[in-house]
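re: that chain from earlier
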Amino acid sequence: MFEYLLRLGDNTLILSQRLSEWCGHGPVLEQDIALTNIALDLLGQTRMYLTYAGELEGKGHSEDDLAYFRDAHQFRNCLLVERPNGDFGHTIARQFFFDVFNYYQLKELTQSTDQRLREIAEKALKEATYHLRFSSEWVIRLGDGTEESHRRMQSAVDTLWPFTGELCTPDALDQEMAEKGIAPDLQKIKELWINKVTEVLQEATLTFPTNNWMQSGGKQGRHSEHLGFILAEMQHLQRTDPGNTW
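^ sequence. v structure.
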């Protein structure tokens, strides 16, 4: 259960950190604020997951300890969320792929046999519903926009596609959690995810990728070099001055 909560919390933590990089750099003020607010929503979800994880671990670790004092190989986020922002189209494509997954995951987690996780999911689902609407609308707007925006959006979809398979591919831990009724069946979510992604890409006049080769390993602690740079920035203050509060 501790390991599973790390997966949930690390996904939202790393994606939140990535989105925060847009603060002050968004294409227009409204979207700058929107991306920052989504980052804050994801950070709030992270705090609930990691606080619960620390309690279950029983070693006195707080949410901050788990966020700031683990090394890259101890993180359990999927590879998709650590991918660089790229241009606005890449950020939106990454967000959309994750939002579809997170929405259906949280929806299923509201039926979890674990009461604490069920309560977290019920709260987070409200935010995830907005996140999915936001990213879906921008995929459609950019895909079915100008020739330039269509080209960039298609490039983003094709580039990030190989990192989406890990989202809905269950390993032994996912299967164990599903059998206990704690976590959802990822095979069920995969079908919902593909249907929603297909629907939005079609409306956006974008081509559904045909590449079946997928990257994996993030959930087991095998990450790209990008995560190391994210953690170097995110953890610098606490590792320089441990126990610092403000």
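The chain has a mean pLDDT of 96.
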